[in-house]
UniProtKB/TrEMBL annotation:
Species assigned in the record: Bacteriovorax stolpii
Coiled coil: none
GO MF term set: ATP binding; carboxy-lyase activity
Domain Diphosphomevalonate decarboxylase-like N-terminal: 11-166
An example Gene Ontology biological process: isoprenoid biosynthetic process
UniProt-listed InterPro entries: GHMP_kinase_C_sf (IPR036554), Mev_decarb (IPR005935), MVD-like_N (IPR053859), Mvd1_C (IPR041431), Ribosomal_Su5_D2-typ_SF (IPR020568), Ribsml_uS5_D2-typ_fold_subgr (IPR014721)
The protein's name in its UniProt record: Diphosphomevalonate decarboxylase
């Protein structure tokens, strides 16, 4: 039997302006922008064996063990993409996936895993059909496909700083795929950035992102949020181009807190922050005020705090973290180069 295989590693990302609220087909209600991470990766090996079975067949292994829950997500996604991959019912896929970071650690595993899957599918598609895509078009389609699989996964296919969603200041921006922000346009103070993830609670979050997005459909502050997110993204990119650190910090922290304020004021409401989350925010702001080191925080839909700071201050910040938070689990990451094809 004919067997083909491909391997990709793809990173997670951390949003600076959050995507929260969508319409059908994973179309965002507001634009977002994120740092691509370097060390928080999904490494995925996909083998396709010719069967001519006429149905989608998938075996999925996560860190060496069969994982039926994630397999069902993949099968559902592949069913929705049968038209794009017309060979998918004639091959059995064996997918082996592992993460370089712990599950439920506040790092977006769906972004890294679904982008790794979509990159692998497109590489297999090239092998099976014999049609090679230009590099730029390959990544654009990978971003579109990843978005359909898991929203913000569309941002993980590009390096460093990535925007997704229609916005005036980004030429060629789209709700269908993400676009890399040209590093040459960004002030050098933002070129190399660290993300130290402070683990408040490693348990799986009590409310899924899907449920959270759906609560925006009837949220009283819905339109105000979408307007503000557009403004925040424009102002953030401007601050990063002009080297305005105080503006960057203000916008990033406001947007993170707004995300959680939206959760607290939805119907039904929910609170994902823990007392320790608020204590860490207080300590970060206190450290910034006392040292003038430009640390700031962002928070995804969970209790864990992402501490962001320029790599130039890495030594001082890590010394403070080690001294101040001896008993807290911290995962250190930084901005990175995007996905890598490991095996073709």
């Amino acid at each position: 039997m004919e067997k083909l295989s491909v391997s990709w590693s793809s990173p997670s990302n951390i949003a600076l302006v959050k995507y929260w609220g969508k319409i059908p087909h994973q179309i965002p209600c507001n634009p977002s922008v994120s740092f691509t991470l370097k060390n928080s990766l999904t490494i995925m090996d996909v083998e396709a064996e010719k069967t001519n079975a006429g149905e989608i067949q998938v075996d999925f292994f996560f860190e060496g063990k069969i994982n039926e829950k994630f397999k069902s997500k993949i099968v559902k996604f592949l069913e929705s993409e049968r038209e794009r991959f017309d060979w998918i019912t004639n091959y059995k896929l064996t997918i082996k996936s592992e993460n370089t970071f712990p599950h439920s650690s506040g790092i977006a595993s769906s972004a890294s895993s679904m982008s790794a899957l979509c990159l692998s599918l497109l590489s297999l598609d090239e092998k099976i059909t014999g049609v090679k895509t230009q590099t730029e078009d390959f990544y654009k389609e990978a971003s579109d496909l990843s978005r359909r699989a898991s929203g913000s996964a569309g941002r993980s296919v590009y390096p460093y700083l990535v925007s997704w969603g229609e916005i005036d200041s980004v030429v060629g921006s789209s709700n269908l795929f993400a676009a890399p922000v040209n590093k040459a346009d960004i002030h050098p103070m933002f070129h190399d950035y660290c993300d130290s993830i402070m683990i408040v609670d490693a348990a799986e979050k009590s409310v899924s992102s899907r449920a959270g997005h759906s609560l925006m459909d009837s949220h009283p502050f819905r339109e105000l949020r979408y307007k503000r997110a557009h403004e925040n993204l424009e102002k953030l990119l401007s601050a990063m181009k002009e080297g305005k650190m105080e503006d960057f910090i203000s916008i990033v922290e406001e947007d993170a807190l707004m995300l959680h304020a939206l959760m607290m004021t939805s119907t039904p409401s929910f609170i994902l922050l823990k007392p320790m989350s608020l204590l860490l925010i207080e300590k970060i702001r206190d450290y910034r005020a006392k040292t003038n080191i430009p640390v700031c925080f962002t928070i995804d839909a969970g209790p864990n705090i992402h501490l962001l700071y320029p790599k130039a201050h890495e030594t001082a910040v890590k010394e403070w973290l080690a001294m101040e938070f001896k008993d807290l689990r911290i995962i250190h990451d930084e901005t990175g180069p995007g996905p890598v094809k490991i095996k073709d």
